[in-house]
Amino acid sequence: MKTGYKQKLFLYIVVVFALFTAGVIFLEQSRERQHKTEALEEKLDVFAGIVHAELEHRPEAQQSLDSLLSLFPENIRLTLIDRQGRVLYDNAIKEADQMENHARRPEIIAAREKGKGRDIRISSSNKTEYLYYAKQFNNYYIRVALPYDIRVKHFMEADNLFLYYIILLFAVMLALINLVAGRFGKSIRQLRDFTRFIENKERSKDNSPYSILHSSFPKDELGEIGAKIALNYRQLKESEKEIALEREKLLQHVHSSEEGLCFFSASQSVEFYNGLFIQYLNVIADNANSNPANIFIDRSFEKVVSFIFNREKRDNYFETPINKQGKNFMVRVNIFDDKSFEIIINDITKQEKTRRLKQEMTGNITHELRTPVTGIRGCLETILEYPMETEKKDYFIKSAYEQVLALSELIQDMSLITKMEEAPQSFKLKAVNICRLLSGLKEEFAAALQEKNMEMEWNVGENVMVKGNHNLIYSIFRNLTDNAVRYAGKGVRIYINRDSEDKDFYYFSYSDTGVGIPGEQHLNRLFERFYRVNEGRTRDTGGSGLGLSIVKNAVAFHKGKIVAKNRAGGGLEFLFKLPKMSAG
Questions:
Q1: Domain 427-579 adopts which CATH fold?
Q2: What does the pLDDT look like over 277-300, one tens digit per residue?
């Protein structure tokens, strides 16, 4: 017969409580015996003290210790032992000096180590069982012993009242344990009945409500657990419905994904795919086909197929680029634990274009850095290797310094462009007065404008306030001015105008009367980094080659656009817009 939960719980608790009770009883009995033994030792210690006091007062009393025995109980045994263990006196043995050496007696050993000791054993001299108590003094041990008879044994026995109390408490606890086990057993039975009920419902595919199960559980902790299990079961069924719905959403997401996806079973049969997979497959494959399995027979996918069929056991990932029809694709294969796999096709044409642009940018930066670095090195090597006059040495030092300035300008400009692209949030916006900004700009370029006989005028309005970053807006006008000073020619006039405005933006024009740009094909590329209308232009006139690129990025940072055009009367004109301070 199968043992019920109630019986098991009752048995376990009873065993644990019985062991605990036995331990308490044993501990209490031991402690009580210990206390009574210590009480006897105290009495025997008093007798030993009396004997010692008598011996201290009258050393000759050692021979007449019998006279002291009248003060002690008549059954007391008194023994005097020297430090070597020889018995000097024993009232129970007439020829004490004939007794064997007592140095190895347990109570003597304890007294020698701790000052006093006790032992219960049968005397080897008169075959009587004694409770021995020995105490060490200066030159001897005094041992007092009581016959361990019925009276002493009865005195040392523990009181049974506590034992009776524990037994009564144990009986009461058994009744309580039985009651508690019954309550637990009932809750467990209810949980068992619930699981059977659920199992039957699963088999019958019954989806009726389960709320009635809440009232069938007891009002205790296990009942709460049972109710929670019932609730969790209902939530599980609801979650299954939600998962099915989410699965449908996921399938819709896969269909609308920008990746071509197809899932295959371990036997290479198609399980699922989206429309983009077929589209990419037909771009790559030689023969258009709406069957995804066509990937296993087309020559363009030879590496993919070879990996799937010939891969190493632990090799679960593979990717390879495919270039077809002027497009770049990346094909990836993921092998799952059950040997099924997915094939993903990505159109990476834009990423490849960006990568090539970055490579070109790196090459341009290297090319632009080489010129000033080479110039600096040449100047310094000339100074170090050839003796020369101070004037000539100063010339080379000045040349190296100018190259350092060009290099520093290039690094600063590249840093500014990178910061605008990667950390635009680091630029704080505030109100910028354009008229005041242009006044400061003219002062900065005063010497350069005078040297080339250039004039700079503006008509923007004294109270025009732009919402932006002061440094970036300053860099817009500064780089346009620097560009005009370097390339427009001599005797040129620079005009800066606010042409119009709307509720959000001011529209500015920046023009000069210089040489302009020969050939309109160059106008759209002026804002590219390091772009030159002719190869020698930047190096001949200085500059980092990044000025107009900084202008374009700074205008774009302020949500504006800039275009360049040749003026009808000659020269170059830039049109751009900047946000008003009142704009949201």
A1: Heat Shock Protein 90 (3.30.565)
A2: 888 888 888 777 788 888 888 888
